[in-house]
Amino acid sequence: MTWVVCFEFWAMGALLASNPAAEADTDPAPAARVSFEISIPPGLRNLPHDSRLLVVLAPPGRGEPRESIGRLGAQAPTLMGVDVPAGSKSATVRVGEGAAVFPWRALGELPARTYAAQAVFMTNRDLWFPAAPGNPYSEPRTVTVDVRQKTSIALTLEATEPVESLPTEAGLVRYRKIRSEKLSRFWGRDMFLRVGVVLPRSWETETGRRFPLVIDIGGYASRFTRASGMMRERSGWRTAWMAPDAPQMIWVTLDGAGPLGDPYQVDSANHGPYGAALVEEVLPALEHEFRAIGQPWARFTTGGSTGGWVSFALQVLYPDVFGGCWSGFPDPLDFRDFQLVDLYRDTNAFVNVDGFERPSSRTLRGDVKFTMRHEVQYENVLGLGDSYTRSGGQWGAWNATFAPRGETGQPVPGWDPRTGALASGIGESWHRWDMRRLMEENWETLAPKLDGKLKVWVGEADEYFLNNAVHRMDDFLKKATPSVNARFEYGPGQPHGWNPRSPAAVLKEMQDAADRGAPKETGREAYFRTRFLHGAACVHCKGGR
């Protein structure tokens, strides 16, 4: 009994030593006497909306410090953040003691040494991330910082990220920026959806043909511009796409950026009606311009990580719109395993039931890369109000997607940004986005519409523990009545991003699905070429042009 007590005392001591944030109540951080004075040019004063001012400190000689924003774990830079309220006319903003700080508990813990310092002003309210178009920043400055010495370090916002413009189109790649009436109405200002389009090799030569269409969603915060990367010379995906026997279809990459981070492409109380905007505005526009078939059996979804969840959710939420999803290593499909948090039973996001810090990411060997507390603390620095809920980061975007909208018009926090204490009833308030629960509660209606359409894969050593929730979904589908045909694949010892088959194999599966879905009374080619070019079934022609 004595040994157990001593062990528990030692373990808790080791825990506190390894995570300074956990010992905040017993060992206050020293105060800092250093500050950064950021000069705000006249054109950046009196902005009509709240903005966030960041200061980044990183080792000198390793590129611009702002490029290291987003690194977590041992390689994380020091990041500080303060709000600049709407209407502020201040010519100088001070960032110092009292600012939100990462990865330290407070600025007073910053080691004395030489740093490269840089300021970033997050002013683009429609695309909330540090490098968003139009965001001002200072040039890097090498400084020696000792928080015990009273020092004022000046930085001036003298450069700006380029304003937004669509990338140059080349070859089979196109880009579109489409105004959404639905999102504009929700946000009270003009809002746009951006997409990349990769056309089939035969699009320009077979002008009388219509094609299946695939909606592709990338990992967290992936931009629509990755269409160009997919089609870069000698890429494996381009090789599959341009092969002589490659299936001919239209590939659409969505944008993972918005006012609250990645919008997850569904209708949510905080992001707005992204799902309706996609299905009712973007899809019809693209299908009309690029000659898509425009029928459910010829529309598919796919993606990995964030895109894995989105592709799965779009198929479930719009089963009459899409004809199949290919979902890789998806974000949590069952909220009993929201990474490692059980949203229905746990009481704290940062600490598990045994009192230990909860990991957020692991290595293939199983070592902890960083904890949830560490990751949320980073987002608290990016977020307005010193809160991850408005950070534009992963946890903030999840919260904005799944949480209700508060009385102030902001997302209700799912957990306290500093202690991790889960909000009472979070599982019930978020449950409509728990895919397993949603399907279970509506299974009689959904089953016949999802039969044969769900294909999911994940590595068993997934970096973010996403394999746990995939197993939960798999277990549900194996027992569900009526039963459906669904494919779940697992890679033993494989990490986040594992894929069991090549791009060519996935394209072939999608083409086979379209072939099976095409009406049988006509030849497939005749149906593609004639009926959908000018026929009554064309959603745009409505009986002929």
Percent strand: 15-25%
**Secondary-structure arrangement, i.e. CATH architecture of the largest domain:** 3-Layer(aba) Sandwich
Helix content: 25-40%
Terminal residue distance: 85 Å
Outline the secondary-structure elements.
Elements: H1 2-18, E1 34-39, E2 51-58, E3 78-84, E4 92-95, E5 100-102, E6 113-122, E7 136-138, E8 141-145, E9 151-160, E10 173-179, H2 181-187, E11 192-198, E12 213-217, H3 226-230, H4 236-242, E13 250-253, E14 267-268, E15 272-273, H5 274-289, E16 299-304, H6 306-317, E17 325-328, E18 359-362, E19 368-371, H7 372-382, H8 394-402, H9 426-430, H10 435-441, H11 443-450, E20 454-459, H12 467-479, E21 486-491, H13 503-517, H14 524-534
Parallel strand pairs: 1-9, 12-13, 12-16, 16-17, 17-20, 20-21
Antiparallel strand pairs: 1-4, 2-3, 2-6, 3-5, 6-8, 7-9, 10-11, 11-13, 14-15, 18-19
Helix pairs in contact: 10-11
Describe the structure.
- The protein is an alpha/beta fold.
- The protein folds into three domains: 140 residues, no CATH class; 263 residues, Rossmann fold (3-Layer(aba) Sandwich), CATH 3.40.50.1820; 94 residues, no CATH class.
- Helices cover 26% and strands 21% of the residues.
- The protein has 14 helices and 21 strands.
- The strands form five sheets. It has an eight-stranded mixed sheet, with helices on both faces.
- A hairpin with a 5-residue loop joins strand 18 and strand 19.
- Helix 10 packs across helix 11.
- The radius of gyration is 25 Å and the shape is globular.
